[in-house]
Amino acid sequence: MKTSVALIGFMGTGKTAVGRRLAERLGKDFVETDAIIEQRAGKPIADIFREDGELAFRELEIAAIKEIAGRRNQVVAGGGGVVLNWLNIQRLQGDAVVVLLTATPAVILRRAAAGGAARPLLNVPDRAATVRNLLKFRRPFYTRAAEITVDTSRLSLEEVVTGIINRLKEYEGFSF
Ligand code: S3P
Q1: Is the pTM of this model over 0.70?
Q2: For residues 1 and 173, is the Cβ–Cβ distance under 8 A?
Q3: Which of 7, 10, 11 is the best mutation target for the ligand 1 pocket, counting ligand atoms within 8 Å of the beta carbon and taking the most?
């Protein structure tokens, strides 16, 4: 039986907020891969991207997922790019049901604006085009990895969390 949930999805789809609340309601631990990466690297994500480059960040991300994937009874909020390495998904799927959060580009742009410097990939002149292009490129990766999908665009935090819990109840092989 799986005992964990892994939240994947594009920046601004609510992985962190939903993950924290879902963990609370399920009585499981909450873990954020970006936070682990920052701890291990000893600096913020933006500095890792700027000083070491995106590839170095992806290596740290792989290491972070490897480190946490063996643990049970956790809700993992992954960074938006974890799906780019299939190994990450395979490792997460060992104990976690993979839940994809989606949102429309407009909603993503609105929410990501609040994220500021913490999202180096969106620190570009034409954010709308970047979001569109990244979404187009990544959509097949997200879809392939997802076992449950929830569109968060028009739902409140609590509605998203309740929606996930209801879907988990129908999921054979998940232990609450
Ligand atoms: C990234 C998303 C970010 C963070 C990094 C790269 C991505 O996480 O991991 O900036 O490639 O989509 P959030 O999705 O939590 O913003």
Answers
A1: yes
A2: yes
A3: 11
